[in-house]
Write the structure tokens for this entry.
Amino acid sequence: MTQKTEWTAGPPTASKRALTLRKLKALEAGTPFAPEAQAARDKLEQLRVHQVIVQVAPATDGGNPGEVAYGYYVIEDGDTLVMTDSEGAPIKHHAIEGRVKLLPSQNAETLARILTRRIHRAGEGPHAGFYRRLQYSNKGIV
């Protein structure tokens, strides 16, 4: 008599990326072969979510400390930059391409900074739109 066991990938909301990370971590921890463990570590590093911090408003002498925006990205297939949230899920924007193929002369971090600044200026993200600080001109003040 044999029992059939079912293997589940985790919660139904788990993404393909999260499943891949979980499998690579298990492979790295469970394999007795050093080259295989090193390959798993290399792939884990490639799938790591990178963070960039971009200044979007300068500090002023009047006490305004300025403003920064956080951006997150991953590198897919070694040559494609994908803008993500902090968990690694790709973000979608109606006006800005979130998946960009890197040219040989481009640096991924520099391109991610440019895209983060564009996304912020377009009014997307947690501190955009309604919650963004209002900018008033001094034209009407006498």
Summary: The chain has two domains: 16-46, 50-124. Residues 16-30 form the longest helix (15 residues). The CA atoms of residues 108 and 139 lie 42 Å apart.
